[in-house]
Design goal:
This protein is mainly alpha-helical. About 45% of the residues lie in helices and about 10% in strands. A 3-stranded antiparallel β-sheet has the order 1-2-3. Helix 5 packs across helix 6. The protein is elongated, with a radius of gyration of 19 Å. The N and C termini lie far apart (about 40 Å).
């Protein structure tokens, strides 16, 4: 992919340096908070920084539900693999019949199990065992369920 005619801002160079550092040390791609710390740009602007670096042809981004993986175009090397590969909601068409249940709804309607363990607590325990947040864990469950439903 050739480089587009994009004018980079000073904070773009700082962000690119952070990305290259993360790639070199095989760490995960920087979050909006990480980019904010390095650039001082508003969180909303950090999204534009990544998009501008993409348009300039400096990076390629794989977006997932909670994380991203960035490849530096010049070297072909990438940040560490993501933990959760559920696709980002913007990159996949959402079926009209796909349910969306909030964690608070699950907690309110929790079915009591032995020792008064709620469904929410069960999700939290299972998520911790997987090294995920409750939201990521539920997203993975929903995504796997819809994939299995489509295969059936």
């Amino acid at each position: 992919m050739g480089r587009a005619s994009v004018t980079l801002q000073p904070w773009d160079h700082s962000a690119m340096a952070l990305i290259e550092q993360r790639v070199a040390s095989n760490e995960r791609a920087p979050t909006a908070d990480d980019l904010y710390e390095v650039t001082g740009a508003a969180h909303a602007t950090t999204v534009n920084i990544i998009k501008r670096l993409e348009r300039a042809g400096l990076i390629q981004v794989e977006r997932y539900q909670r994380e991203r993986r960035i490849t530096v175009t010049a070297t072909g090397k990438s940040t560490a693999p993501v933990k959760t590969k559920a696709p980002h909601w913007r990159t996949r068409p959402r079926p009209a019949s796909m349910p969306s249940v909030s964690v608070s709804y699950v907690q309110q309607r929790a079915v009591r199990k032995r020792h008064e363990e709620t469904v929410g607590e069960m999700f939290a325990k299972a998520a911790r065992a997987e090294g995920l947040s409750v939201q990521d864990f539920i997203a993975e469950l929903v995504w796997a369920g819809w994939q299995a439903r489509g295969e059936a």
